[in-house]
Each structure stands twice: as C-alpha cells, then as structure tokens.
Amino acid sequence: MFTGIDEVDWATLRHACGSAADVPGLLRGLAATDPVERAGALDGMYGVVHHQGIVYDSTLACVPFLCALIACEEVAERGELVELLISIGQGHGLRESADAAVRAGAEVFAGLVGDRDPDVRRAAAEALVQFLDQPARVLGLLRQRITVERDDRVLLALVESLGLFVRRHPAHAGEVLDILLALGTPPYDPGLRLAALGQLAGCAPDLLPADLVPTVVGLLGERSERRRSGHLDRDTLAGRLGRLRPSDEEGAQLMRTLHTALGGRLTDRIALLEGQLTSPDPADRCNGVWLSAALFREWRGDHSASVELIGEQLGAEADLLRDAAVSVLGDLFHLAAPAADHLHALVSARPDLWVRRWGHGAPPTLGGPLKALARSGDPRATAVLAQVLSLPVVPDDLGQVIVHLGRSAAPLAPALRHRLGRVPLDSPETFDCAVPLLSALTALADREAVPEVLRLLRGMPDGVRSRHRIVESAVRALDAFGDGTAEVVPVLRGLLESECAAVAAGALWSAEGDAAAVLPVLVRELESVDAVRRRAAAEVVARLGSSAAAASPGLSRMIAAGCEWERTVGACALWRVAGEVERVVPVLRSVWTEHPRVRGTVAACLLDMGAAGAPLRDLVEAELAAPRRHLVRAGGHGGGDLLEDERLLGVCRKVWAGVAR
After folding, report:
1. Over 70: is that where the pLDDT of 57 sits?
2. Would you kindly state where each structural domain of the chain is located, as residue ranges?
3. What is the pTM of this model?
C-alpha cells in the first residue's frame, strides 16, 4: 500500500499548516488497526491535507496511496476514503490536476462496485461515474449491480449515480432513462421509486408522471409507514424519545433532491410541501418545514398556505419539529403573519422560551418564538416584550426586533428610556447594554429619550469598548428624534470633527435644517480615504437636496468609482442634489443590472425621481415579473436577504403604481 511513500520528498510539499512532512504518518494512520488512530488520521487529512476542500501539492501526492488503501480489503472504513478521493477530485486550488490524478487511478473504483462492504459500494458508485472515462463500461457495471444489490442505501446511491451519469454522458442517456423509469414504478420500494423520480426530475422532467404530486405524496406516506412499522413500540421510552426527536435524513435527502430538480415549478413544489406538512409522520413534517425554508428564500409567490401549515407544527409534541418551525418562521418576517396565532399561543404557553442564553458571559437574545412573533409585526408581542424589559439584562437583539412592530411598540418607550438612563458609562458592558436600547428608541423615534441619549454622549469616557459604535448609535437616535433643542445642537456640533462627522451632520440637519452649518463637513467627508465615511456623507448630502450643490464634484467622483455601492449612493445623491438625469440614469442602469444587491437603493431613488426615472421603468417591470429572488446569497441562511428582497418588491410596486397613474 505504501510502496514508494518514503521516496516522496514530503518536506518540500505543502498543506494548510505548512510543510507536509507529517503526511506519511497520516496515510499510515488510515490503515491502523486502532479505530481512534484511524479517526485521527482521517481528521488530519481533512484538516490540513485537504483543508476546506483545497487541493495542495501534498494532496495530489496522496492520491496514489489512497487508491492503494481503498483497494485493500483489510483496511477499515474504506468507504470514507473513497469519499475523500471524490472530494479531492472535485476540490479547488489545483482543480484540474486533482481531477486528473484521481482519474489516473479510477480503475480501482470498478472493482469496488461489488465490494463486500456496503459503505464502499455506496461511495464507489459515484466515484465510478465521476472519474472513469469509459461510459459504456460504467453503465454496464451500474446496471449489473442494480440487479443484484440488496442494501437499500446502496440502491439509492446507485440511482443517484445513474442521474449523474446522464448529466455527464448525455449521449448514453436513453438506456439510463429507461432504467430510471422502471425503478420509479411498482414493485420497487417506495424510497427507491422516490429516488428515481428525483433523478428523472433533474435529467428528463418531461418523462415525469402527469400525477407527480399525488404519486410522490403517496410514496412518501408508504415509505414512512414502513419506516414507522420497523420502530419500537411508540409507547415505550424509546418511542417517546423518537417523537421528541423526529429524524429521517434519508427521507430529507430524497425530497431535497426532488425539490431542487423541480426548481421553478412552484405549483408542484408548494403542493408537495403541503403534502409533507400534513403527513401523519412528524419526521416527514419536519423535513417539509426545512425544505420550505429554501423555497421561501429562493422563490417569490403566495406562500401563505404553507406558512399556516408550518405554524400548526408549533403545537407538536416533537421538540425538533417545533424548533424547526420556529426557526423557519423567524426568518420570514412579515411573511410569517399567517402563523401569528400559533406563534402567540406558543409564546403565551412557554415563558421559558422568551429569552435565550447562549453561554456564560454572552449577552442574552430573544427566544425564537417571541422574535418570530415580533418580526411578523404582530402587536401582541409588545406586552411580552414589556415583561422582557423588566429582566436584569436586555436581550442583545431587542432593538432590531422592535423596528418590525412599528408604532405598536410605542408603549415600550418609557421602560427603554429608564433602562438607558441606568446604563453604566464606563463599563466593559456599556456597549452590550446601550446599543440594543438605542436602536429600539431610534426605531420608535422617541423624542422624550433625548436626556438619556445626551447623558451617554457626554459622560462616556474614551476608553470604553467600541465607543465609536456607541456614539454613532446615539447620534442616529438623535437624528431620528429630530430634536433641535439648545442641549442637543452643541453636542452634535462637537462631533463634526470626529469619525462620526457625517452621521452627526445628518442629525444636525434634522435638528436645525441649516445647510450652511453641515455642508462644509459633508464636502470634506466626501474626500475621505475611508469609503464608509464617503458613503455616509453622500447619504446625508442626498437629504439636503439642491442646497448641497457644492457637493456635486465629490459625488461625481463617487460615480466613477469601482465599488458598486459607492457608485449607487453617489448617483442617487447627485440626482437629488443636481437633478442630472443624463449622467445618473446610465449609472443606475449599470449597477442595477450588474449588482442586484443595490436594487433596493436604486428603486428608492426611482420613486423619488418620478417622471424623470421613466427610462429605467423597464427594470422595475422586469423585477416585479421575476419569480426568483436574486438577492439571496447561494447557500445563505437567515432571513435578511428575504427581507431585503421583499422590501425591494414593495418599493418597485410603489414605483409602478406611480407609472400607472
């Protein structure tokens, strides 16, 4: 297995931690008889030799030895080593070299398709299709294996490999599609039929049955019934624990494959979700909840019925199912409104879930059910948040949540002011205590909080942790208040030479409306070497409008910049200051097309431009007609992208309504 390993000059090769001199030890460890040593060696391979999917020169040097290891039946956990080779062959860094290196040893995979170890057979099926460049032979091996294989997990892997084969070798697709069609019909196991339908959806959707949704829902129910019948009595302790922790990763993968392949067929996907979410099996419902998150995040549409069904899971006995529903609803913001009654019922019944504590020393955060209820905009969250405000420490995300309640959160203002007035001014906890309160009061635009905000600005010493961020939050609060009293103005003027100069200028403008007092500061900030400060200045300049004509040269330089955000903010400000349609419109079209994440800012500018924005209304029309959310980052989690997309749609509707009038 290790012939020639000592002839490699490992010390001159590199991996994630530097010299690869330790790699021979890791490779030998993969063949050790001690399972702990084998596990440590495999961790080392992924941790340094193939760190985060990167292929180094030492990774390439390992491939022949890994091929020798998987060919030796005496080596344990060879299936994991096959998976490592697949990952290396698909890795990044030296991608082409890695692919070639694994292909050079791919003959070994042909011998593993019939290995005695089912884990090896399962991994070898994908490796065979991925790296052996003999399509006819590969298809023959897969077809033969399917006829004799009895392990369900291996059969599923073989079906997935057939789908991969069609995508890699479309010229040989006909015979494979016939096999998949056969596997998708009785008398095959329902799980295998689901897998075959999932692969057909990705390879040849026109071959799917016309009654796809009822077929899939029926197969899912049949599969779940078989799975449940194989479990222990549900009245036993193990059965009760199973209800609390419903888990079916294989089922999740089957349905994820099908949903992914169906893509934009939203009618079918929503119907499938509703079938999953009404299943008698909590594991099916749990899988449906998690799959709904991807659908909501990626595709626009009317999801209210699905959201209502997710809300119904909040009353489930299964903890995992309830927690999954809370997590998904918390990322939907106002789209979670159809589930608000269910959220309120859970919040009312479980005060222990109002606040979540992550560990010693970490600030608490709002619990998932309460956060989801407040983010949905439901005013019933206000009374509960009032009780949370009476706790010793305010949750770190309170301000970010209150903003979604709008004016219905106004009753919280007195308690927020009281808490802000008690924040220590020179403590390591000042930031954690003050910023959530400031953001909440900013959201409420509570002018009565001016004394408490000024106390913070005047009394906080220089050495406080994150002082700059606290000051900026406090100034933004004063900006929202728009208070021009004799106490506020001197404090803001005193900050015009600070890092927060642009933000302070904006607050001073809100307080006094005197362009002469703030314009020189903003013009200076537009020349800053800090792009963040330039952008902040441009945003304030836009508020000044035509009275900020002196800022036009600085804004002109911004629209020539390389950063899309700087160009966007600069162009929007230039329109509001100088009304230069001919210069601004090409910039706005360019950034809209090339950088979807700035579309919300551009749409807001178009709303302000009115008839002057007519040359760009085709962009708005296309946006409103697009079914896919293109602001969502690939593989992203959380609801911020979804919320940004919904806000974009809201502004676009207003722009289009203006056009219609």
Report:
1. yes
2. 357-498, 554-661
3. 0.87
